[in-house]
Design a protein that fits this description.
The chain is of the alpha+beta class. It has one domain. It is built from 4 helices and 6 strands. A 4-stranded antiparallel β-sheet has the order 1-4-5-6. A two-stranded antiparallel ribbon has the order 2-3. Helix 1 runs antiparallel to helix 3. It starts with 20 loop residues before the first helix and ends with a strand.
């Protein structure tokens, strides 16, 4: 018998080294904050992915029209004086200088099969592509950018070595604010009456020159 403990309370077993309630609560708060930040990163990644997808689609649409024009030399209604080099109504008839004529969302083309003019047929097909008719989901056309429009802006007169000179422009609505195109540029002139929202106008532009054939 341990006489030194006589009349005293027995020794209690030492407490274990487990977590206290406050430590558990702090851990929960840290985990929740981490999950919220992860959700925010996923949301931003989705927006960036969509912006990248739209730009890729815009570039593809722009190059598609450039290829159509380069391969349709005989459909261009242009002249280097009098008489016109080509008399068939063509892209020149639908080119614009002020952005008032656009193709894609809101244009008048609904069925390209009924279009008999070859040049206009090319424009109709381009307009349909800009509307995203190639891919649908639940009845909605999702094969292109948001509110996509395309313009062919005539550079008149063309340079001396070109039969025709055009800017091909594709514009659409972005998802995050950036700088809008400078006023008076092809990117700003195309579908100038459409308000995509401050900093949300996206555009890709290329210049197509149809060279004169000499000899």
């Amino acid at each position: 018998m341990n006489w030194s403990r006589v009349g005293k309370r027995p020794l209690l077993p030492r407490q274990g080294s487990g977590f206290s309630l406050i430590e558990v609560l702090i851990t929960i708060v840290v985990v929740v904050i981490g999950l919220l930040r992860l959700a925010g990163l996923q949301s931003k990644a989705s927006v960036i992915e969509m912006e990248s997808y739209q730009r890729a689609q815009g570039l593809a649409s722009m190059r598609d029209m450039a290829d159509r024009m380069m391969s349709s030399r005989g459909l261009l209604d242009v002249s280097t004086g009098s008489p016109p080099v080509v008399t068939t109504p063509g892209f020149q008839s639908f080119a614009l200088s002020n952005g008032s004529i656009v193709f894609g969302t809101g244009d008048s083309y609904s069925n390209c099969v009924t279009v008999t003019n070859k040049a206009e047929s090319q424009l109709c097909l381009w307009g349909q592509a800009l509307k995203g008719v190639a891919e649908t989901s639940a009845g909605s056309q999702i094969g292109a950018m948001i509110g996509a429009r395309g313009c062919i802006i005539n550079v008149s007169p063309p340079t001396d070595f070109a039969l025709a000179d055009f800017f091909i422009v594709v514009v659409w609505q972005g998802l995050t604010q950036t700088a809008d195109p400078d006023a008076g540029t092809p990117a700003a002139l195309c579908a100038s009456g459409v308000n995509f929202g401050t900093g949300l106008r996206r555009a890709v532009v290329t210049r197509v020159m149809i060279p004169k054939l000499v000899g």
